[in-house]
Amino acid sequence: MWKKEWPKHSVLAIAIIATWLKTYLTYKTSFSISIDNVLQEFILFINPLSMLLFVYGIALFFKSEKARNRYILAIALISSIILYANVAFYRFFSDFITLPVLFQTDNFGDLGSSASESVFITDLIYFTDVILILLAMKFIRIIPASSLNLAVQRKAYFIISAAVLFFNLGLAEMERPQLLTRGFDREMLVKNIGMYNYHLYDMYVQSKSQAQRALANGSELVEVNNYIRANQPDPSKDMFGAAEGRNLIVVTLESLQSFTINGEMGGEPITPFLSELTKDEDTIYFPNFYHQTGLGKTSDSEFLVENSLYPLSGGAVFFTHSGNTFNSMAESLGNKGYHTSVQHANTKSFWNRDIMYQSLGIDQFFDIESYTIGEGDAVNWGMKDIPFMEQSVEHMADLPQPFYTRLLTLTNHHPFYLDEEDKLIDEFDSNSGTVNRYFQTARYLDESVKVLFEELKEQGLYENSVIVMYGDHYGISENHNEAMAQYLGKEITPYESAQLQKVPFFVHIPGFGEGYVDEEISGQIDIRPTVMHLLGVDSEQDIQFGGDLFSEEHEEFVAFRDGRFITDKHVYAGNVCYDIETGIETDKAACEPSIEPAMTELEYSESIINGDLLRFYDEKNGQLILSEDELKKLDKEQQRLKEDTQN
Ligand code: GP9
Ligand code: MN
């Protein structure tokens, strides 16, 4: 009859190849995935294969042809639905689906209405493989099985599948080190491990955090709350409300380290504008301010600014806990009538910002789509900082006031490439191209801040604003110690390494007139309370680990995310205690009293994030939201504690 004779597993082979090719063609036609080189294209091409081999391969365990075919068809259908759901979602949101987006109830309205606008009858083309498989099943007649042992065949098949998976992961690791620990960007994940593996990864990340959340309860917050209440400094009387009602502009100075401020290279200032600002009468500059970020880099710094909580010890909290309840600075200022926004000329899904910003209560996100990138306006990671500043101020001119807007710069980012015409100083001369170029991009970033100030004045926004600027994290990693030692003229010991984690922090209040340099030891965790109090917004009941830097009671103590810490007297790094002034090793006992508190703080913060504990806290009245049972349990515990102390 019609049927032709084919080898036994022809349908399976056709299914794998058809779905594989369809997936690749869908990548190329229905998403905008940027490809920079042949290797990336190759990874994109092979990345659907590993998962398809495994999942379709299960068919080999079915004895009857009918059951096997049914299974293959079901897999083709499910994978097509997954892929197609992403296509339709992408049309509307320019992003791939992630589980939290399905659980964020705010999104449902959008999802429903967008679904109908994003679905067309011609989309049946995304199910081509299913149709092909059906045809194959109809027209192919299987010739009797070969004499080879079935178990051996299956074993060989799955060994090859595993090899494909590891080959893919190896290439991805080469292309993007630490991709799976840090997450970075959904586009990057799909590009490197493929759509199907990405969903598995997403499920793993989300279910891990959901499991921790489910096990947590409000009573865990009691101890944390007591600790925080005991350690919160009172706001400074002089500075509280000094900038009440003003717009707040927070600028993230990408990868800018403090050694560039008032620093020179080849006789030229690296950051002339910012250096001048340290002496300005309207500016308070903090030279002993440290970053506290972990693997989430820029996003961790944003997390610190918004929440005054420590980011996570592993992974990027923007990725892993975007579904949590937060009490962000944006939300608090929003409640005071501020319009809140972030401006960043990059893909919105980078660091999962589009989702996380909703949880942080940020009203508007000006992502790359909000910018016009003309010819010559992009370098390195994307839009150059100068046109970025110009267009961001244009956005501000249209915002309702007062506004809180955060600007995330980008040009001074590894690998620090710059167009010839933007190089305002020479390269440094060392064995590290990264370090050599860093000086030039830092110089360019400085120039862009100058442009920001000019544009704000031009638009009449300057006088009524406060401009807060901070470096997000180091730009030069320890891999470049040799070149840094050459620049600094001293060996990079663990003490020096810790000191190199200083990033600049500026609070610029036009018309203030009493600017000064504040030498106290401080960190990114302190930004939230400092800025909120400056704007006259109370944060005393909030769950936050930082303190108001203008307060006389502020404790000079900074814990790094990795457990190193700095006090006014010591630097604790690599399990060694150093004198902060001299950098000389001292008796560890001198650091001992702070080791425990540093760990405690980091652990408390981690437990808040992992348990999503802020859902049990009402910051309006400082009350814990506990169930009857939890309250009873707590009462009992307190009773027991009382009895213990009495005995
Ligand atoms: C990307 C920008 C830079 O959007 O935030 O990221 P980083 O690598 O510095 O975290
Ligand atoms: Mn950064």
TrEMBL record:
Membrane topology, as annotated: Multi-pass membrane protein
CDD domains xrefs: LTA_synthase (cd16015)
Molecular-function GO terms, alphabetical: metal ion binding
SUPFAM superfamilies membership: Alkaline phosphatase-like
One GO cellular component term noted in the UniProt record for this chain: plasma membrane
Every Sulfatase N-terminal domain range: 246-537
Keywords, alphabetical: Cell membrane, Coiled coil, Manganese, Membrane, Metal-binding, Transmembrane, Transmembrane helix
Keyword Manganese belongs to the record: yes
Processing after translation: The conversion to 3-oxoalanine (also known as C-formylglycine, FGly), of a serine or cysteine residue in prokaryotes and of a cysteine residue in eukaryotes, is critical for catalytic activity.
Binding site for Mn(2+): 254, 298, 472-473
Positions bearing 3-oxoalanine (Ser): 64
Transmembrane stretches, start-end: 12-30, 42-62, 71-93, 124-144, 156-172
Localisation per UniProt entry: Cell membrane
Any Pfam family hit: Sulfatase
Active-site residues, as the UniProt record annotates them: 298
Key word Transmembrane helix present: yes
Name of the protein: LTA synthase family protein
